[in-house]
Amino acid sequence: MSSNRRPSGKRRGAEVRAACWLARHPGFLATPTTIATSVAELGPTTTGGIAAGILAAGVAWRRIDPDSFHHHAAPRLRSVRRRWTRYHGYAWRRNLDACDLTVQDRRTGAWLTPRVVRVFSPTPSIDVIKVKMVRGQSVRTWQEQQEALATALGAEVLAIERTKARLITITAVYGNPFADIVPAVEIPDEPDEVDLTAIELGDTEHGRPWTEPLLGTHWLISGATGSGKGGLLWNPLRAMGPMIREGLVRIWAIDPKGGMETEQGRPLFYRYATSADVEYDEDGDEIRNPMLELIAAFRDAMKQRQEELRRESKRKVTISRDTPLDVLMIDELAMLTALGGRSLTVQVNRLLAEIMTQGRAAGYSVVAYLQEPTKDIVPVRDLFTVRICLRTTSASYVDMVLGDNARLRGALADEIPVTEDYAGIGYRVAEKSRVPIRVRAGHVTDDDIAELVATCTPDNGTGGVVVPFAA
């Protein structure tokens, strides 16, 4: 007798279905059972006191340490609430019905609704929903109804991807938490107000200051044209302004776009080079590239400081006027690492790899900006320790910048609208949890840059005049 019997078409009994549902949702039965047992054993007063104590502890936790609360407790509480209010029962079934995503069993006539396996809400505006499809559906079935489903759920943008057989992941982003433009960060008054391990760049979607460590790290900032990368160039300089003025931080700036973006802040820079400074012979061949020379000089200065630290038996630099934090900022890295000549590309990649693998303890950091983060554009991509992804033109770029499966976890940088209202909005990933966080860089105007230059231009020993770079 063959063991491959065809289904009879009959449904399981109601009690069996109920038992399976309870097995998938043990908390639904365990919670009232625990409460009832506590009331029976300890009495209603004691049980009420315990419940009140737990609630008070949660409120106190949120008030005393909001960062820890939002990291550990808030996502779990939010996930439970949204699962039972948005993605369960009548509300979920009604939305799928409206989008033709329920299937009728041709044998029994019963309507089958895709089941939500898990809901995770890492931030107030992002839900990641894992759904088990019913037979007869494919990921394409859902993707064809993607816009309709986004409308039904009330989501601003929606992404649907296949996770494994019969399982898909829906990432829904609700609303724009940055209703207003985030202003440029304030310039501190004194150097001791600057924390190089927490440079303010703007706001997070939690409404808290967005900070990133610069001392001992290297930043990679990716974003398409008009995505707001300028805010991530000038806000760090404003946040470090007093230290730049006092010579505790030195900025080595390279602008391969001819200086259009950076020329206004030129007095702030310790060394500066642009593509306009490249020299050519009569045949149009490049004979001198000050941008490459600046990177080489940055590497040589790092080597010299390493030798000084070695002689003093120090493993890590202490930031001072004699040993400042040196920061190499490259406005469009691709023009050096991929779009230049082969010789230039090889040399730049070699120098950057050397700096980023050895510069941490010596106080040398790299901050690079680019539009396409592919390996052929940026071979040293994996050496950047802090990565920020603004609006991109390709879904694949998100994972290239933020790491594997970052888009599945909610970083829909490719879905950010192409309007000025969304400039500066992007994603970064929490170091420990790898959860994407939506952020927005402060909007920096020409007046903000002028203020920075007027108040924080360093005195380089020539009455405030920047010493031009020379090989």
TrEMBL record:
The answer, when asked if Cell cycle is one of the entry's keywords, is: yes
Q: Where does ATP bind?
A: 223-230
Q: Where is the FtsK domain?
A: 191-399
Sorted alphabetically, which SUPFAM superfamilies does this protein's record hold? P-loop containing nucleoside triphosphate hydrolases (SSF52540)
Q: Name one GO biological process term.
A: cell division
Determine if Cell cycle is one of this entry's keywords: yes
Q: Which UniProt keywords apply?
A: ATP-binding, Cell cycle, Cell division, Nucleotide-binding
InterPro entries recorded for this chain?
A: FtsK/SpoIIIE/SftA, FtsK_dom, P-loop_NTPase
Please identify the protein, giving its name as recorded.
Cell division protein FtsK
